[in-house]
Specification:
By secondary structure, the chain is mostly beta strands. The protein is 10% helix and 41% strand. It has helices spanning 2-34, 62-70, and strands at residues 48-50, 75-78, 85-87, 90-91, 96-100, 106-108, 121-124, 127-139, 159-162, 165-175, 180-185, 192-198, 201-203, 208-212, 215-221, 224-226, 235-239, 248-254, 257-259, 266-269, 281-285, 288-292, 297-300, 310-314, 317-321, 326-329, 337-341, 344-346, 363-366, 374-386, 394-397, 402-413, 422-424, 433-438.
């Protein structure tokens, strides 16, 4: 009996060792195929799938990727197959992260995207989802969509998020869309909420690097917006609601760069909002605006709101700007406050094409709408302007409207005495704006 018992013990022990070894080998093989090194320790392997489980077609990988997404797995890994993943429009899902292995490139399938609103990745009303890369390129064929058998459109975005919540997009090079690099807006009147976009580069997009029409708690970090060109507004980032019910609340843009965009580096255009809309709150901090082909920043068409809300720029630099460093149009005195804190402008308003225009100056404030009785509620805090031209540092096209509450402190580094002057259609005292000039 004892011999028999020992025999059973030996058999069981051998079986356990064999099973363990088998699992270890299987995991090692799968790990080489599907998992980046930093994923296997974090992910529950029962909830992780590799797209290769559905096969790989180098001409069209859409069916495999969409099947992996539709599988309900918590983590979908797009493996490096040594070839480009060519894709038709993909639908994102809730409660899922998509991890793109290093070296993977995702491209819109050439000849597809004939619909005016066909986007490469779309999420409508989804939640708790992410797309994570390591400087992976995600691109489209912008030049294809402007002629031939493609209908004219500015909505062929690379990433479209509408009414989504708790979304992260990181580590991507998003380029050459037929619309925006990424669009963030509402779905069934619900804004996007709790969105993070970080460590991305948006380049050579057709309409905008990023469009934000409705969002609450949006954080944009360490990202670059460059070379936007194609159709207006052609901005790096455009914050522009479509409806009065849209939201721009707690929008944070930190440590981002804006360069070589056909339009403004950052455009804030609020003509669709009204006095009943929710107050806006937008912060741009530690931003770098360089080699701007138009205005560095354009802010316009703000609604009267009882002075609620704030748009703030803090520790931003503006250099080598073709048109104005700051362009403000139709900002009523009782609209959201605009604050420029610890910002610096150098070599701005340099355009030779528009050198004859009287408005070409570092700062340009304009009133177009006749119903606006007074413009203002703008404050400069410890700002610096480095100016090498003898001209007014600020031009205000105010007609007979009183510019009020333009205040704060600006130090002008210039050898030209006239650089401290302000040009207005009709002069009014700006007693709350303190200017000092330092001869460099």
């Amino acid at each position: 009996m004892k011999r028999l018992f020992k025999k059973y013990i030996f058999v069981i022990a051998f079986a356990v060792i064999a099973i363990y070894a088998s699992c270890s080998v299987s995991y090692a093989v799968d790990n080489q195929l599907a998992y980046p090194k930093n994923i296997s320790a974090k992910a529950d392997t029962a909830n992780v799938v590799s797209v290769i489980e559905w096969g790989f077609d180098k001409d069209d990988g859409t069916n495999s990727l969409q099947a992996a997404i539709d599988s309900g797995a918590k983590t979908v890994i797009i493996p490096n197959m040594g070839a480009i993943w060519n894709l038709r429009p993909i639908r994102l899902a809730s409660n899922q992260e998509i991890i793109i292995e290093p070296g993977v490139t995702l491209m819109a399938k050439r000849g597809a995207f004939k619909g005016k609103k066909d986007c490469l990745f779309s999420g409508n009303g989804i939640k708790n989802a992410s797309i994570k890369g390591t400087n992976n390129k995600i691109g489209m064929w912008k030049e294809d969509y402007t002629g031939g058998d493609y209908a004219e459109s500015e909505w062929r975005h690379i990433i479209s998020l509408r009414g989504c919540s708790d979304i992260q997009v990181s580590g991507l090079e998003v380029s050459s869309s037929g619309g925006d690099g990424i669009y963030i807006g509402s779905w069934k009147s619900k804004p996007c909420k709790n969105i993070v976009v970080e460590n991305c580069c948006f380049s050579d997009n057709y309409r905008q690097g990023m469009s934000i029409t409705s969002a609450v708690n949006l954080s944009i970090l360490n990202s670059t917006f460059e070379n936007t060109i194609g159709t207006k507004p052609a901005a790096g980032i455009d914050l522009e609601p479509n409806y009065s019910s849209d939201r721009l609340s707690n929008i944070s843009i930190k440590k981002c760069s804006f360069q070589k965009n056909q339009g403004a580096g950052l455009l804030i255009w609020l003509n669709k909002l009204n006095s009943q809309s929710k107050p806006v709150s937008i912060l741009c901090e530690d931003g770098n605006f360089n080699n701007c082909f138009q205005h560095a920043v354009t802010i316009g068409k703000l609604p009267s709101s009882g002075s609620e809300g704030e748009i703030k720029f803090k520790n931003c630099t503006f250099t080598n700007v073709s048109l104005t460093g700051l362009y403000i149009v139709d900002k009523p005195i009782d609209s959201a406050k605009l604050t420029m804190e610890s910002c610096a402008w150098k070599n701005v308003a340099t355009s030779k094409k528009f050198a004859h225009k009287s408005w070409l100056s570092p700062f340009y404030i304009r009133i177009e709408e006749s119903h606006i009785q007074s413009t203002g509620n703008v404050e400069f805090i410890k700002c610096h302007l480095f100016e090498d031209k003898s001209r007014p540092f600020m031009v205000i096209d105010n007609g007979d409207k009183f510019p009020s509450e333009i205040k704060g402190t600006i130090t002008i580094h210039s050898s030209h005495v006239g650089s401290k002057s302000i040009k207005m259609d009709k002069a009014f005292p700006l007693s709350h704006l303190t200017l000092s000039r330092i001869d460099p």
